[in-house]
Amino acid sequence: MLIAGNWKMYKGPREAGAFCRALREADLGGVDVAVCPPYVSLADAVQALAGTDIGVYAQSCHWESEGPFTGEISAPMLRELGVYGTIVGHSERRQHFGETDETVARRVDAALEHGLYVIACVGETEAEREAGETEAVLGRQVSVLDEDDNLVVAYEPVWAIGTGKTATPAIAQDAHAFIKSLLDVPVLYGGSVKPENAGELCSQHDIDGALVGGASLDLESFAAICRAAFPYHS
Ligand code: PEP
Asked: What is the overall mean pLDDT for the chain?
């Protein structure tokens, strides 16, 4: 059971360091925990969480190790900082920054090759769900990924991200079972996870944890989500 906090473009280095120092002391119930700060805050997070089991993940990484790619960061650079893993293919990157299944695959392969753990995000839009295309979309997004011990998929229905609309546990369970029928890796659920719904979601057979956006920015709510998921920890 992994609970990962995606901080998106929130918390600069000072705030990230203070949050992580407080996280060290928090009651997280015994689940596996990770935080995903913005690039500029990674070093402070790594330093503040040194010697703990809490992983620090980036929010993306480039497929080349170095080169003329202004604004990008590579897997070896993240490793040099002591970063443990990275998110790849978040729907906000697909929506706003031109991320495609092909670039997701290249980023995932490079990150794994350089020893990073990867949380690869997939998920359908509301229009795709309403058109009955959920499985076709998930199938296409998952088809570019290969099984790997260090790979986790996050099922994040786009209509549930930052909207307050959570997938019902049954909808999430169905999507997770479908993804696992294609790829034998742990699957996290993401989309408006809160302390109030985390337990029921994580109790579903094929839900192996959560990728939490908004509710991970507040220490109390993030810790409460971790504790709610713990009974389903394996
Ligand atoms: C996310 O950013 O991955 C996410 C799931 O966001 P939220 O929890 O805010 O919906």
From this structure: 96
